[in-house]
Design a protein that fits this description.
homotrimer, 353 residues, eleven-stranded parallel β-sheet, ten-stranded parallel β-sheet, flat
């Protein structure tokens, strides 16, 4: 059994998670693990039904689950209306043992511009480079090697991991988390076609990011052309996502990895975009539109709901036959229509006879 | 009304933009904004017909537009044959107030290799690391934290934003703009399959980039295996694009974000590639091939024109029915053919009777 | 003819490559080039049949090829059972002239944490930032501007190019190569939905990477939620790939660029994933599953084989007709079934008559 510095009784844990305990309240829990890997003394969870098969054999000392799964569990249970939320809280409790707070203050190797306001409680790590007129709030953490342009503000409690770039005039709200390699505020992809070549539209706008936003590793959020690109409050964005210039993302949207959202598109609040999706420019998605993974969206979607266009993998020899036919689908449709007509004529003739 | 340090009369602006003025030539313009957001004293524009609905209500003091839209506009107009080009020029004029030129010279924290030639007018920002035998031309700007390998040359007027990596033996032309996080010259993805595993092909080639090229944030352009990967003049590449080893991109191509171009593929001049496209390796695209967003290209395209393969989003319940049928398309085609035959036989029989 | 510092006789080269020489063994070779570009004194190769057309006209002094192509070649040949492997070995021989070994030791601008163990033969380049309790093995190279978190280990012979980020608790095996901009160990995209918003699941797990792994530029590999994300031995991963939290990649898998593998998915050994593929979370791929480029995989694949779902580009006007029909495919299928029934009834009737 792994012993951790963080231990807690099931009774206290139930209170912390807002869960109903069935089992010994004095049992001590010192970590969290999957059903398959959990050892005695650890808490586990059932938050995805595809793992139900591991419930019977788990060695965990307690399991977070829904009421519906209680009868299948032989160990103490923490019954939750939202097991995933309870799990998040439990993990946060045990995570305290592994996170090291970075040292406060400005590392001597950091390079600062003029007229910056940096809270005493903030961390500016080694080899950061910060422009002029930058404001950094209380408890902000800038990881190693970050580059922050002129006239930026980063508000209280925001953590920016190593090697993030912010261009000039970027505003980031409170309690955000931005992962390594993200680039905030590069120029949008906007050009005028002229004599067969391209003339750049200079990008004067900035980027404005709300509170409690998480942005994934190597994601890029371009600055607006004239106005700001806007990310609402509570938005979560995965790795390698492209957010184009002048995009507006509503509050609490979730955008999975490798998705591209082209310029000037607006997402309503609470949209969920699956991985590898592509959303065209200059369109609008209503509140609570859900786009499944790998879907292409090329027109506005004015109604909440789930939308899809991705195809799923089949054995190559089957696929080849079907994809070959796809390119004659219009022809097939016309032949079907002609045949329907012909059969109707024949049917009428034979009936008449 | 926002007041900017850059102001210009409509008369002068018309001259600058090559546009025909209808309205008071003495009217002073001090900024540019969208039709919806423009205030009095600002210039606006109609370059995309989906914004025509905002023309009537705009508070702008003048609008750049095409001859065809003049009659729908109640405020002074700047009539242009290429409104987007006029807009680019106008934005460039007003952008002067927001861009700060970086200080010339080499920041003391930069680390330089041996035998480098760096123009006195160039900027090498904080925490840059530059290899041996590097040549940096007049007015080149290297942003903070850039890493440049050995034997590279960056020619006059090129701006490289923060945190760009150039490996060894990369040549970048004049007046290019490379955005943060781009990686130029990593090894191509080339391996020999051997005993179930992979043996690396060492990449001896480099990357050669022409003049007036723009490369987006976190885009990667791999070095060639033996020869250089080549990007032509006037090419524009968006964020998160993958250009494989030995790819050759013709002059003035435009490649939108999240596109992948696999190794040894050649694009002719003036190609336009939509976002999220995938182009296979070892193929050729003719001049002026246009690929729409999310299209997969797996064979050469020898003729200019527009090519597509992306599917568009539909409500999930409709999509599911159709995608399920897709996997029986070949079967449907055969049944259709059989039915046509059968009906023809019946038709002949009934006619004969 | 280009003269290189590395020269070798065909006889020695044949021995080095494990190839059978037909031609003058004393002929001196001083470089390698494509059939089209090779000059006298250079070695060339035929490893892809689409380049067979250049064989007749090559100026190369010798060509690596398969037995099957010997009769079409007029110059000396090196006959190999695996020409691509022989090419890899030849390129490695000539590459020695262009690779400069970086200087050993720790650059004075690097910032090191407490309790680090760094081999004397290792290179820690300029502006690296290394956390506490980091172990760096013999001959490891850390390029400029890398950031390594706490409690990481990087084992002997591994090369990490410039500007790579490793978060805390990452383990990298021996003889790996990680390209610039890669981010190893950012938090997975795991959240609980709560009151319309998102509560973060803290990620306590790490990342464990085997030996002889290559990871491409700007690729991201997220840390596990509770356990490690795992990359097996001999795996090769291209640029801009997303590997989600708790993914397990089997030994010797190859993953091409712009592919996304969502969280908790397991790939068996020897899988090959084409570029731009999307693999859903919580699924399993058997050993030796091959996924062609741009394919979406949304369920487990339990049998080795080739799987596909990508569509290929067609001229836009043809495509538009077919894609429009696609959205009525279910309707077509039903009409086809109805027609079959109707025709059967008619056929029976006419036969009876």
């Amino acid at each position: 059994m792994k012993q951790s510095m963080c231990s807690i009784s099931l009774q206290e844990l139930a209170k912390l998670l807002g869960a109903k305990l069935v089992g010994d309240p004095r049992c001590i829990i010192s970590g969290v693990a999957t059903l398959e890997k959990a050892e005695r003394g650890q808490l586990s969870f059932l938050t995805n039904r595809s793992y139900r098969k591991y419930l019977a054999g788990t060695k965990a000392s307690a399991v977070i689950l829904s009421q519906v799964d209680v009868e299948n569990c032989d160990v103490p249970v923490l019954i939750s209306e939202n097991p995933r939320l309870s799990l998040a809280k439990a993990a946060a409790f045990f995570a305290k043992t592994v996170y090291k707070a970075p040292p406060k203050g400005i590392h001597p190797s950091a390079v600062l511009g003029a007229h910056c306001t940096i809270a005493a409680s903030a961390t500016v790590s080694a080899h950061c480079v910060i422009g002029d007129n930058v404001s950094i709030g209380e408890n902000v953490v800038l990881g190693a090697g970050c580059v922050v342009g002129n006239d930026c503000s980063i508000n209280a409690g925001t953590v920016i991991q190593a090697r993030v770039t912010m261009y000039d005039r970027i505003r980031i709200g409170q309690n955000c988390l931005i992962h390594s390699g993200a680039v905030i505020g590069a120029d949008g992809f906007g050009f005028a076609h002229h004599e067969g070549g391209w003339v750049k539209l200079p990008h004067i706008g900035g980027v404005s990011i709300g509170n409690e936003v998480e942005i994934g590793a190597n994601t890029t959020i371009d600055r607006g052309f004239l106005e700001d690109t806007q990310i609402g409050n509570g938005v979560i964005i995965d790795n390698l996502v492209l957010i184009g210039h002048n995009v507006v993302i509503g509050d609490r949207c979730a955008i999975a990895g490798c998705t591209a959202i082209a310029g000037s598109t607006t997402l309503g609040a609470g949209c969920m975009i699956g991985g590898g999706a592509s959303i065209a420019g200059h369109i609008e998605l209503a509140d609570n539109v859900h786009i499944t993974a790998t879907t292409g969206v090329n027109h506005s979607l004015n109604t909440a709901g789930v939308y899809s266009s991705g195809l799923s993998a089949k054995p190559n020899h089957i696929w080849r036959r079907n994809t070959a036919r796809f390119h004659y689908l219009d022809d097939m449709a016309k032949r079907l229509r002609a045949l329907e007509h012909k059969v109707q004529v024949i049917a009428r003739t034979t009936e008449e006879e």
